[in-house]
Design a protein that fits this description.
Blueprint lengths: L7 H4 L13 E3 L2 H9 L7 H14 L5 H8 L1 E2 L3 H6 L1 E2 L7 E2 L3 E2 L3 E3 L4 E3 L17 E2 L3 E3 L4 E3 L3 E2 L3 E3 L4 E2 L7 E4 L3 E4 L2 H18 L5 E4 L2 E5 H12 L5 H9 L1
Parallel strand pairs: 2-4, 3-6, 4-7, 5-8, 6-9, 7-10, 8-11, 9-12, 10-13, 12-14
Antiparallel strand pairs: 1-17, 5-16, 14-15, 16-17
Helix pairs in contact: 7-8
Length: 244
């Protein structure tokens, strides 16, 4: 039986300085980031000591996860989100340039998410021309998602897929924009993503990136709690179908 660890957000009272936004989103400010570090080992010194530790390891020829992200990937979201809001188990060859990316997202190696420039004017910035990614989504290696499109919740993007059109929730997309509903065994893949996000990768549950800012998705957190309660039972599949 999976023992669900007590997460940071469930043990900390929300700071009143967090800015409430529409659609169940609460902005995750720099004050909240500082509070997060205060509750970790070594408190406020945690980021500085991490940098010193990584520097020593680098001089010894060992590169950290953050080093891999900076050297081998091109990711626009802040490092705090990449460290504590995403599941990137193999940080190699990833291009992550999106207008929005949700919670509990797993990105494999050599995945490309970005604009295709189709509707851009000369000299225009890529903002508002990039993909929007939902919650509990898994991108397998070498998948490409390009353009002003939306990937729904609970979606699997198969290895080598080329995606240039919207993908509805509870789907798997493969080949070139080929989409079909999730089968029972696909649900188990999502179960594994949530399991590993909660157990190891996602230290700030509900954290998402939107329009170059960080938010907590309160609506998704409620659904996430239900999914975690039933992660070992057959009700997990029913929860996916009912909640999304």
């Amino acid at each position: 039986m999976l023992q669900i660890p007590t997460s940071y957000l469930t043990t900390q009272k929300r700071d009143q300085t967090m800015l409430t936004e529409q659609n169940g989103l609460t902005q995750f400010t720099d004050l909240e980031i500082n509070k997060f570090y205060r509750n970790r080992k070594f408190g406020r010194l945690n980021p500085f000591l991490r940098k010193m530790y990584f520097l020593v390891k680098r001089l010894q020829g060992s590169y950290s996860y953050e080093d891999q992200i900076k050297i081998a990937c091109m990711c626009e979201p802040p490092m705090f989100f990449l460290n504590y809001g995403l599941m990137i188990s193999h940080a190699y060859g990833i291009t992550l340039s999106v207008d929005e990316i949700g919670c509990d997202v797993n990105i494999g190696q050599n995945v490309t998410l970005g604009t295709n420039g189709k509707y851009m004017e000369l000299g225009e910035h890529t903002t508002n021309h990039k993909p929007h990614i939902g919650n509990l989504v898994r991108f397998y290696s070498h998948a490409i998602v390009s353009g002003e499109i939306k990937i729904g919740d609970c979606v699997l993007v198969a290895a080598g897929a080329m995606v240039t059109k919207d993908v509805p929730s509870k789907s798997i997309v493969y080949g070139k924009n080929e989409v079909k509903p999730l089968s029972k065994h696909h649900i188990n893949y999502l179960r594994a993503v949530l399991y590993h996000c909660e157990r190891e990768y996602v230290k700030v549950p509900g954290l998402m990136y939107k329009n170059q800012k960080l938010f907590i998705n309160d609506e998704y957190l409620k659904k996430r709690e239900i999914l975690l309660q039933n992660i070992n039972s057959d009700d997990f599949e029913k929860n996916i179908n009912d909640l999304f």
